[in-house]
Amino acid sequence: MDNVTIVVSGSKLEQWNSRLAMVLLPNTIMLFIYIVLGLLGNLAVIYIYKFRFRQSSDDRFFIPYLAGIDAMACVICSSANLIINFNTVLYTNAILCKSFFMLSQFSGSSSALMLTIISVQRFRRICRPFKPKMTLRNKRLSVFCALLVVFLASVPSLFTTGIAPITNTRLNVTGYVCASVEVMGSNIFPFVYNLVVLTICVGNLFVLCTLYVMIGKTIYGRIKYRKGVKTTAMFELSSSDGLNESCMRKTSTISVTKSSAILSSSHRKSCRKMKMAGNRLSIMFLVITVVYIICFLPTLIVIVWDSLDRNVWLMKSNLEIVSFRSAYSLYIINNIVNPIIYGFFDKALRKEMIAWLSKIC
Questions:
Q1: Which H helix or E strand runs over 251?
Q2: What's the pLDDT score for residue 231?
Q3: Residues 6+ away with beta carbon under 8 Å from 275
Q4: What are the C-alpha distances in Å from 272 to residues 263, 266, 275, 306?
Q5: Residue 42 pLDDT level (bands cut at 50, 70, 90)
Q6: In terms of Cα–Cα distance, which of 302, 327, 299 is closest to 312?
Q7: Could you say which of 1, 123, 181, 270 has the lowest number of CB atoms within 10 Å?
C-alpha cells in the first residue's frame, strides 16, 4: 500500500512540475536569450576597450571590469533561474541550490557595488575636480576590495539557503524548492541575514541616487554657465565691430596676436571637448544606474514577497506565475543593456565597434 502511495504521489509531483515547466516556458526562452545577448554584448565591449583602444582612458577604466561582471551575471543568474524553471517543485540537489544561489548573489551584488564605485569616481571628478583623483593603484584596489567584500557577504547564503518542502493542497502532494531554510532549527539567522542584505541593497540604491543627483546638478550648472558666457561673448564681439579701425596695430603685432589667439582658441576647444566627453560618460553611467534601479526594484519586491511566503506564487494563475518568475529575473536585463548604453554614449567605442564588425563581415 505504501509503495502504491509513493508511486501515485511521485506521479502527481512530476505532473505538477511538468505543468509548471510548461507554464514557465516563455520565461525559460527569455533566459536563454539573456545568456546569448549578455555574453555577446559584454565580451565585445571587453575586447574593444582592452585590445582596440590604443591608449587607456581614465574615464573608461571601470567599463571592462563592469562588462566582465555583467557577462558573468548573465550566465550565472540566468542558469540558476533556468534550473528552477525546469525543477520548480522537484529541486532536490542541495549543493546545486546553495552554489547557484551564492554565485547569483555574488555576481549581481558585484555589479551593483561596481556601479557605486563608479558613481564615487564620477562624483570626485565632476563635483570635486580640484581634489586628488583616484590613482590607477587605488582603482584596482577598489575593484579587488569590492569583489572580496561581496564574496564574504555572500558566503552566509550557503547556510541560509537549501531545499525546503512545499505542499500543494489541491493535489495533496509535497514538492521541494530551493529557498531560505532554517539554520540550527531556527529562522532567526536567515531572517537577520536577509534583513541585512535588504538594508544594504536599499542603502546602495540611496547612495547611487544621491551621488548622481549631485553630479547631474553640477553638469547642468556648467552647461547653463557656458551658454551664458557664450551669449555674453557674442554680444561683446558684435558691439565692438565699429572700433576695429581704432584697435589696429602694426602688422607684426597683429600676426603675433593672431597666432596666440589661434593657439589659445585651439587649447580651449580641446579642453572643452575633453570636458564634454567627461560629462557624456558621466551621463552614460547615470543612465546605466537608472536602468539598474528600474530593473532591480521589481526583483527586490518579489524577493521580499517570496521570503514572507514561499507558497505565494505556486497556487496562482498561469499568468501570475509567469509574471512572478519574470519579475524575479528582471534584474538580469540591466547586465544585458549596458553594452548598448556604452555604444550610444561613447563615440569612440561606437566607431571601433563599427570598424571591427565591418572587418568581420
A1: helix 251-308
A2: 54
A3: 222
A4: 14, 10, 5, 51
A5: very high
A6: 302
A7: 1
Residue 361: pLDDT band with limits 50, 70, 90: low
Helix (H) / strand (E) element for 275: namely: helix 251-308
Ordered domains of the chain (ranges, CATH): 1-224+272-358 (1.20.1070.10)
Closest CA to 199 of 93, 344, 304, 334: 304
What is the C-alpha to C-alpha distance for residues 176 and 180, in angstroms, rounded to an integer? 12
DSSP per residue over 126-161, as a string?
HH-TTSPPPPHHHHHHHHHHHHHHHHHHHTTHHHHE
- Give me the amino acid identity at 79: S
Q: What is the pLDDT of residues 246-257, one digit of tens each?
A: 433 444 444 444
Q: Environment class of residue 136 by beta-carbon count within 10 Å: exposed (0-12), middle (13-18) or buried (19+)?
A: exposed
Question: Which three cell numbers, joined as nine digits, stand for 265?
Answer: 582658441
SS3 category, 330: coil
CB 73 within 8 A of CB 112: no
Task: Answer yes or no: is pLDDT of 51 > 60.
Answer: yes
Strand partners, 178: 163
Predicted model pTM: 0.79
pLDDT of residue 94: 93
E-strand stretches of the chain = 161-168, 173-180
CA distance 299 to 304: 9
Residue 174 φ then ψ, to 5°: -110, 125
Band of pLDDT at residue 232, cut at 50, 70 and 90: low
Q: Which residue has the higher pLDDT, 231 or 240?
A: 231
